[in-house]
Amino acid sequence: xxxxxxxxxxxxxxxxxxxxxxxxxxxxxxxxxxxxxxxxxxxxxxxxxxxxxxxxxxxxxxxxxxxxxxxxxxxxxxxxxxxxxxxxxxxxxxxxxxxxxxxxxxxxxxxxxxxxxxxxxxxxxxxxxxxxxxxxxxxxxxxxxxxxxxxxx
Length: 153
Known about the structure:
There is one protein chain. This protein has a domain at 47-150: Four Helix Bundle (Hemerythrin (Met), subunit A), CATH 1.20.120.330. It is built from 6 helices and no strands. The chain has helices spanning 4-24, 48-62, 66-86, 94-100, 107-125, 133-150. Helix 2 runs antiparallel to helix 3 (66-86) and helix 3 runs parallel beside helix 6. The longest helix has 21 residues, at 4-24. The chain is globular and about 85 Å long.
């Protein structure tokens, strides 16, 4: 029996395996965007005027009906989180930052912003969530009050 065909197959298989492994070397597995530890990655800094302009866009979006309300709610939550990050409030998640920001807000505003954030989480994660426009409008108002107390609006 001739060993050349077997040896050639083994060598070829090894080369194919080596090229596949080499092609993947140095590539990062896609596990989502990397964030700095401590949640300090807040995107581009926004000044007070940019915050106001973004808030005005969110309010306009909220006036377009159901999907606009949902979009406005999600964006308001993101803007509020960015404002907390820019204000130097520490925490890994928005919930952590809210816990650390208790002294930055009037007690009523603090409770209302928490409620608004919980509504946003329910809206974002619950299948078949029934949007109640009055609840979303109230939550948007609570986010606005919180942004004013942070001094960014």
